[in-house]
Amino acid sequence: MKKKSQAATADEFDRRFDAGEDITDLIDLSRARVSHPGRKVRITLDIAESLVRDIDAIRDRIGVDRGALIKVWLHEKVRKEKLGG
After folding, report:
1. I want to staple 7 with a disulfide (CB 3.0 to 4.6 A). Which of 13, 27, 48, 84 is the partner?
2. pTM of the entire structure?
3. Domain residue spans of the chain
């Protein structure tokens, strides 16, 4: 089987992925790592209604779940703080 040519740019890679093309030949799996985040813990936050509306406006615009968006933001902030930023 002929190996596919590498994607020249990230945009080309995304386009090929979005088109449903098999991209397994384009990925270097030797450097892949599996993340095991550990046991999940449920937390409850009391947040101002206006902030929730702002968050919902952003999630509606980008098309993601509120909880997923908040998790990503928290992860990004914690990572930045751990790196001293």
Report:
1. 13
2. 0.54
3. 1-33, 38-85
Query: Looking at the chain, how many residues does it have?
Result: 85
pLDDT digits (tens, 9 = 90+) for 1-21: 555 677 778 888 888 888 988
Q: According to CATH, what is the number of the domain 38-85? A: 1.10.1220.10
The DSSP code for 84 is T
Interatomic CA distance for residues 47 and 56, integer angstroms? 13
**Contact present, 51 and 70 (Cβ < 8 Å):** no
Cβ neighbors of 62 (< 8 A, separation 6 or more) are: 69
How many other CB atoms sit within 10 Å of the CB of residue 54?
Answer: 11
